[in-house]
Specification:
Number of helices: 7
Order of helices and strands: HHHHHHH
Largest sheet: none
Number of domains: 1
Strand content: under 5%
């Protein structure tokens, strides 16, 4: 389903159809496919009628946690969309209550440290 959804999203060999792509990719994502989650990140992060920065970020996080190694892209997306994504990250990671979205440097540094932790875990798993 992941490949079909990607083809539908990109229009590779089939008529481009974002709604069908979302259906196919969502089904594959529900089965735990990290590549499908990353393709959904792409669908929701691109300017257009389906753009949803929060949804995009959540799919990117899922993809990375499932082994898709777009760590730096995830952090760059977080920084580019900080105002929308800081509350999502804070809710997900539950930092001390004095750290709010207004603590831009601290939250950005925490996010970067989390990315480094994920990278290290991945590298330890493959060595």
């Amino acid at each position: 389903m992941h490949h079909l959804g990607t083809y539908q999203h990109k229009g590779f060999g089939v008529t481009q159809n974002t709604d069908k792509a979302i259906e196919s990719l969502t089904a594959s994502d529900k089965g735990g496919n990290g590549q499908a989650a990353f393709e959904l990140f792409l669908v929701y992060s691109i300017d257009g009628p389906k753009k949803d920065v929060v949804k995009a970020y959540k799919y990117c996080v899922k993809a990375v946690l499932r082994g898709v190694t777009f760590f730096d892209e995830m952090h760059a997306f977080f920084k580019e969309n900080y105002k929308l994504l800081a509350p999502v990250y804070i809710d997900m990671k539950k930092p001390p209550s004095e750290l709010t979205a207004e603590c831009v440097n601290e939250i950005t540094n925490m996010h970067e440290a989390w990315i480094i932790e994920l990278k290290t875990g991945f590298m330890n798993g493959v060595t």
